[in-house]
Amino acid sequence: RPSDSEMLADLHDQLDEIRDLLVVADKLVTMSVKKPLNYLKRIVSEPENVKQLLTQFTRSAGRRKPLPTESDWKNLLSDLLQMQKTVFTCLDEHICYKMLAEALLCNGTITDINLAAQLLDIPSAQRRSLKDSPSIIKRSFSYKLSRKESNELVLSAVKEYINSAAHCKDKEMDLAKECLQLLGSSSREAVAEANFIKALELLKSLGVEALPLKVRMCEDKVEIITELLKANPSAYKQHKKVAEVASLFGLDVDKYDNESDISVGMGKTLALLARVALDQNDFKCALLLCQDLVKKRSKEGWLICRDVAMTSNVKDAKARLELLEFASLHCPADDLEDLLQARNILEIDVLCNEKSNASRSLKVQRIIGKGAEKVEQLWSQSSDKMQYFMSHSPSWSQAVSFVKSAATVLPTLRNSSSTNKDPQSTGKETGQHFSSEESQVEGSSPQQVDLQIIVHPFYLSDLKEFQKCYLTGHYLDIESGMSEAQTSFRALSIAAKREEEDVTYNPTDVLLNLARETLTKDASLSLMYLLALPDPLRAVELFDHLRPSPCSLHFVLYYFSLLINSKLDVVKDHIFMCGSQALIATVSEQAMSYDTSNLSSEVTKLVQLFRKYHKWKKDFEEAESLLAVGLDVDVSRFTQEDEYQREAILQLAKESLDSSPSDSLQLALSLALPHGISEWLVYATHLQWLLCNSKFPTRKIEQRITQLHLRDKILSNPEECFIFLSEEIYPKMDGTQFGNLSVYYNLLKACADKLEGPQSMKEGSTLTPEVHLKILHKLRPCLQGVDYKKLMSGGDPLELVAPALSVTNVHVLAKLASKIPVRTGGPLKASDVYRCFALCLFWKVDEGPSQEADWIKRYQECHDYINRMAAEDLLLFAENVAISTKALQISRNTRIELLMLILSYLQTQHKESQKIISSVASLLEYLQELSRHEDELSLLPETLRIEFEQSVSSEEALRANIEKALLQGVALNIVDLMMACSRSVHLHPFTLEEVLLDTISHTLQNASLHEENLAQIERMCLSAKHYDNREIMLKVVKTLMPFTEDKLQEKVAKLSILSVLRKNFSSDVVDSSLLLAQQTSLLTEQDFETQVSMESLLSEESRKELFESLLLECNSIEKLQSLAEVLKVWPNSTENRVLWQVLLVTLLKYPRGNELVLLLAVEIESLPEEVDKMLIQELTACGQQVAFKYALIRGTTPLLDFVVENMIQLDQALVESICNGTILELLVLRKTISDVITNQAVHKILVKHCSSPLEVDTLLFSKLLKCDESQVMTILLLDKLKDHAESIAKQLHERGYQKEARSLYAEGRPLASNLTTAYSYMSKWFQH
Questions:
Q1: Under a CB-based contact definition with an 8 Å cutoff, are residues 544 and 443 in contact?
Q2: How far apart are CA 323 and CA 310, in angstroms?
Q3: What is the DSSP code string of 1036-1048?
Q4: C-beta of residue 412 within 8 angstroms of C-beta of residue 391
C-alpha cells in the first residue's frame, strides 16, 4: 500500500496533467478547435491524431480575422512548442515547425509565404531575392527544416493552390507561382509544376479553357491535345505552340522507342497535327509535319505519312517518295505490299521528272510525252487501295513512256559516261594501276580511282583491318541525285518487276558504269551492281582503273570469292552469314590447291584472277607490316618491283629496333624466304647495321651478336663472309670506333682461320687481322677520337694524329710507326712522329710567349724529341720554325738564332749529314740576307712580302710569288732583289727578264676577256719603263706587238695595248707612228671605207685631210662617235683642237648631238677660248640648260663667269625649268654655288635638292669623276644627305654667305629636326 506521501505526490501529478490539458484545451478553443479533455488525454500517445489536431489548430489560426500578424505566428509557434513539451511529447519538436511552415505556405497570402521561407532550407539565390523583399525586415525564426522537407512542403502547397484554382488566371495560380519562386529550378518537380502552369496558359492562348484539376487528373496528356484540336481545328497552324504545350506537359520525356529520336507522346502529337492539317487541306503544313516525323524517326507517324504521300495535291514527288519509304519501314506487314507498289510507281514518276527537267538526254526528252498505252494494265494489276493514287499521278503516262524508251537510250550511256571523268579521280591519274591482259577492251580508259569506300557502320565490324580505308556514311538515295545510268537502270528494274512488255536491254555496260560511280560512295551497292553482271569477268574493266591499295584489293578479292563460292560451293553455310575476311581466307585455302585442268574455263579464269590479286594483296600486307615497324616504304613500288622488295626487306634487317631486336629481324627473316633472300644475307645485313649505323656501345653490339648467334650464322659461309666484311662493312665503318673495329677484325680473323690461312685486308693493307688487333689494343687507350681507318689508309698519318699527340702517347705511336703506311710508300718512321710532336710542343696554342727569349725556351723544351729525330726531320723542323706561316709571328732575329742552334746541333750530332747541314745553313743565310735588305723589301705590299718569305722553300711557289709581284706593279729592281735573296736557298734557273716576259704572255691570253688583265699589263709596262733597261723594254714591246696584230683578238683589247705602248715607251723603243696608224686603222675599219696609211698620219696636214675625208662619210651620229674616238688617240695639237671644234659643231646638227657633245667635253683636254664661246652660242640655241652644263663641265673661268652672270638674272620659273640635279651638282663641284645663291629661286631649289635629291646624270658624272656609275651617288654624298647638305653649307660659309649657309643646313638637312640642333652642330664655323 502506498504511503500518504506517495499518494499525495500522485495526486499532484494528476492535477498537473489536468492543468496542462486544460491549458491545451483553452488554447485550442481560442482557435475555434473544441475538444474534450478525455479526447485530449486519449490521443496524447497517438502521433497521427496529434498531428491531425495540431494541423487543424494551425490552419484555424490562419483563417482568423483579421489575418494573423508575424507576432501572432510567433505566439502560435510558442503555443505549439509548449503543447508539445507539456502534453504531446509523442511528437518531435521539428514537427511543430513543419506544421507552422505548412500553415504559413497554405494560408493564401504572399506575406505568410515569405515568412514561411524563414523556416525552409531553400536555394541561396532564392533566399537573396527574399532578402530584397520589403515585407521581411529581420529573421523571425531561427529554426530551419531540411532541404527535402522544405521541397515537399512547398510542392504540396503548390499542388494545393493549382488544384483549387478555377482557371489559369485564378489568384491561386499567383500564389502557386510565389511558392515556386522559393524553389526556383532546383528540383525537377518544381520545374514540372512551373511547366504545368505555362501549359495551362498556352492552352488559354489557343482558345481552350481547361480546369487545372481536370488536366492534372488526365493520365494521357495526348488526350488534352486531341480535345484542343477538336475544340480549335485551326490550332494546327500554330503547331510549334501546340508542340510546346505537349513538351510542357512532359510528353517529350515520355517513354522512348529504341529506334526513334523523339518520345511516343511527341510523335503522336505531331501525327495529330499533320492529320488535322491534311483534313483542312493544308498540304504544305501536313508535308512539313510529316517530314519532321521522318527526320525524328517516329513510327507513330507512318499512317499519316502514307496518307500525305498518297495525296496527289502534294506536288513535291521526291518528298512523297521519302514519306512512302518511311511508311513502308514502319507499317504492319499486311500493308507492306501495297506501299511498296505505290513506292515503285512514284519512283518512276520521280525519275521521269528528273530526266525531263535536267535535260541530260535529248533522246529521252523527245520520247517523253508520247502516250501511255499500258496505263490500264498497270491499273488492273494494282490493288483497290492504289487506284486513287495512280489516278492522281499527273506524270504517270510520261513515266510509262520513259520506261519503254530507256532501253533504246542505254547504248549511248556508256559512251557519254566514259568521256566524263569521275570527280573522285580528278588529279589522280598517275601511278601504277592494275593490268590484266584479258581485261583490255577497246576504248578502255587508263584513268585510276583512289578507293576510299563509304560503307554503313554495320559492315565495319568485319573490316576492322581496313577501317583507315573505309568511311561511314549514308547510302545513296534520291536526295543525293542519280546519274543518267542510275536513273535508266532504276526505271528499267522497276518496269521489269512489273513485267512490262517491249522493255529489252543489255545491262552490262550500265552496271559497270553504275559500279564505277557508286564505288567510292556506297561499296555494298557497287558490289551488288558487279554481282549482277551477266559476264562476271567484265568487272576487271573496272578493277583496272582502281589504284592498288589494301582496301581496293580486299574489295576485288571479296568479289571473286563470292563468284568462286557460287560456282564451287566452298562455304557450306549461308554465304552472307560469313564475313568478307573469313570468306576470302576460306576461298584462298581452296584456290591455291585447285587443279585448274579439272575446272571449267570460266571458273579457271576466276581462280587465276583470284590468285593474282591475292598475291598482290599479300605484297601490300607485307608493305604495311614494314610501315608498321617504322620503315619508310613506297607501297606501290614494293608491290611492283622485285628488286625494291629485296632492298626494303634488307633495310628492315638494318633498322632493327633497339627495344625489340628480334621483332623486326624476325619479320625480315619471315619475309626474306618467299622473296628469294637467303637467311645468311639477312643476318649479315643486320651485322652491318650493328657495326656501321647502330651507334650502340661495343659491349651492347657484342651482346647482340651473342644473343642472336650472329657469329656462328655468318661464319657458316666463310668465303661470302670474308667478301661481305671487306667490301660491304669495312668501307662504311666509323674509324674512330676502336671497339667496333676490334669486333670486325675478330670476325675477319675467324674467317681467315676457317679459310685455312691468313688473309690480308681488301683495302690494300698487307697487315693481317692479328696485327690490326694488336695495334688497336695498344692505340685504344691513348688515341681516342683518331680515325683508325684513315690512319692505316696510306695517307698523311701525322696530320691525323697531331691533335691527339701528348707526352703519354708519343712513344707508343713511335713504336708502332713501322706498322703505319704513308702516302709516299713504305711505313711511317719514329723520327716523323717525334718531329710532329716537337712541332706541336713548340707551337702549342695554350700559352703564347710574351718575349722573344721564350721561343728559345720552347726550343729547349723540345730538345728531348729533337735528339730522337733523323737529320732529314731536323731540316723539316728548321724550315717550319723559320719560314712557315706560324714562324712569321717570331721576329727574324729570333728565327736566325733558332736556326743557329739547330745548325750547331746538326754539326755536333749529325756530322755525316753534310747535305742537311748545308740546307740549314742556306736557310740561315736567306734570313740574314732578308735582314740586310729589309729597307728595300719593306716597299713590297705586306701580304706579298709575307708570301715571299714563306715561298723560298719551294721553287714553284717562289716563281708564283715573283709573278704576283710583277702583276701588282712592283718595281723591277725590287723584284730583282727578291730573286737575289732567294738564291741563297735555291739556285733557280729563271731570270728577271724571263719571268717578266712569261708573265706578260700569260696575261695576254686573258686580255680580251678581263679588264683587270689589261691593267696588269699596263703596270708591268710602267715598271719596265722605270727600270731603264732598253733591252728589256724592247723585248716587252716585241712580246706585246703580235697581240695587236692578231685579227682574232677583240678590238677594245688591242686598242688598250696600243695605248699602253704609246703612253709608256719612247720613240727609240717603239715606232709611235706605227702605233698611231694601227690605232686609227682599228677605229675606222668597221665604219669607214677610207683606207688609213702611215703616211696619212705623219703630219698635221695629212691628219687634217684624213679627218675631212672621214667626216664626209659620216652620215649618222654613230659614225661621228667613231670619228671622235679617232681624235682622242691623235696627238693633242692646235690643229687637233680645230678638228674637235668642227666635229662638235657637226654633232649639234643631230637630235642627240648635244648629249654627246657634253660627254665629249669631259674628255677633251683643252680647247681655245674662242672655240668654247662659239660652242656656247651654238648650245644656247638648243637651250640654256645645255649651255650651262657645257660651261660647268669645261670649268674654265670665262665659262664659269658666263654661268654666274646668267643664273643670277633668272626668274623663278626659269630656275625651276633649268636647275635640275645635274646643274646643281655641277655648280657645287665647280664651287660656284655661292656665286648664284643670292638668287632666292636658286636657294629654294637647292634646299629642296638637299632634302630630296633631284635626278642626276650618273653617266656624265662617271666620266667627269672617272669612276663607275654605281659610285657617283657616294662620291657626291647624295646617299648621305646630311653630309651633302653640310658640305654645301660649308662652301657657302667660306665664301661669306653665313645666313644662306645656316638656312640651307637647317632646312635642307633631313636629319636636323630644328634650327637649334643645326646651329649647335655647325657652331664651329657658323659664328660671326
A1: no
A2: 9
A3: HHHHHHHHHH-TT
A4: no
Angle between helices 302-309 and 264-279 (to 10 degrees): 30
In 867-954, which residue ranges form alpha helices assigned H by DSSP?
A: 871-883, 892-909, 914-932, 934-937, 942-951
Taking phi over 0 as left and psi of -120 to 50 as alpha, with beta for the rest, 148 belongs to alpha
Alpha-carbon distance of 1204 to 972, in angstroms, equals 51
Asked whether 1166 and 1138 are in contact (CB, 8 A), the reply is no
Cα–Cα distances in Å, from 220 out to 198, 254, 267, 274?
Answer: 18, 10, 14, 19
pLDDT tops 70 at residue 391: no
Residue 306 vs residues 284, 311, 479: alpha-carbon distances, Å: 15, 9, 19
Could you tell me the three cell numbers for 553?
A: 584489293
Residues in CB range of 265: below 8 A, 6 or more apart: 221, 222, 246, 250, 251, 252, 254
pLDDT of residue 1321: 40
CA distances from 417 to 361, 949, 1251 (A): 12, 87, 72
- In angstroms, the CA 53 to CA 64 distance is 17
- Which of these ranges, 39-48, 111-120, 1222-1231, 1305-1314, has the smallest mean pLDDT? 1305-1314
- pLDDT by residue (tens digit) across 22-52? 888 878 888 877 888 888 888 888 888 888 8
Q: Distance from first CA to last CA of the chain, Å, rounded?
A: 146
Please give the share of the chain, as a percent, with pLDDT higher than 90.
0
Q: Is 471 helix (H, G, I), strand (E, B) or coil?
A: strand
Its pTM stands at: 0.47
Q: What is the mean pLDDT of residues 380-396?
A: 39
Rounded Cα gap, residues 880 and 869, in angstroms: 15
Residue, of 460 and 408, whose pLDDT is higher: 460
Query: What pLDDT is attached to residue 1309?
Result: 54
CA-based angle 12:13:14, to the nearest 5? 90
Q: In this structure, what DSSP letter does residue 728 have?
A: I
Of the pLDDT bands very low, low, confident and very high (cuts 50, 70, 90), residue 1306 is low
- Measure the CA–CA gap between 186 and 190, rounded to whole angstroms: 7
* Cell numbers placing 861: 723544351
| Residue 399 in this model has a pLDDT that exceeds 80 | no
Contact 425, 449 (CB under 8 A): yes
What whole-number distance in Å separates Cα of residue 98 and Cα of residue 96?
Answer: 5
Question: Cell numbers at residue 1095, please?
Answer: 703616211
The amino acid present at 675, given as its one-letter code, is: H
Angstrom distance (rounded) from CA 1047 to CA 1067: 25
597: its cell numbers: 585442268
Give 681's strand partners. none
Strand boundaries in 119-261, DSSP class E: none
Please give the backbone phi and psi of residue 827, each rounded to the nearest 5 degrees, phi first: -90, 170
Question: What residues form DSSP beta bridges with 821?
Answer: 827
Model confidence at 401, pLDDT cuts 50, 70, 90, reads very low
Cell numbers 538526254 correspond to 361
Cell numbers at residue 1009, please? 676577256
Say which DSSP state 449 is in: B
Range with the poorest average pLDDT among 671-680, 1059-1068, 1233-1242, 1293-1302: 1293-1302
554/455 Cα distance (integer angstroms): 14
Given this model, what pLDDT does residue 572 score? 67
pLDDT at residue 346, as a whole number: 79
What does pLDDT average to over the chain? 75
Q: Give the whole-angstrom CA distance, residue 903 versus residue 878.
A: 9
Q: Give the side-chain half-sphere CA count within 13 A for 1220.
A: 12
Are the CB atoms for 283 and 313 separated by under 8 Å? yes
Residues 607, 594: contact at Cβ < 8 Å? yes
The residue among 1013, 1017, 1018, 1020 whose CA lies nearest residue 992 is 1020
Give the separation between CA 471 and CA 1037, rounded to whole angstroms: 89
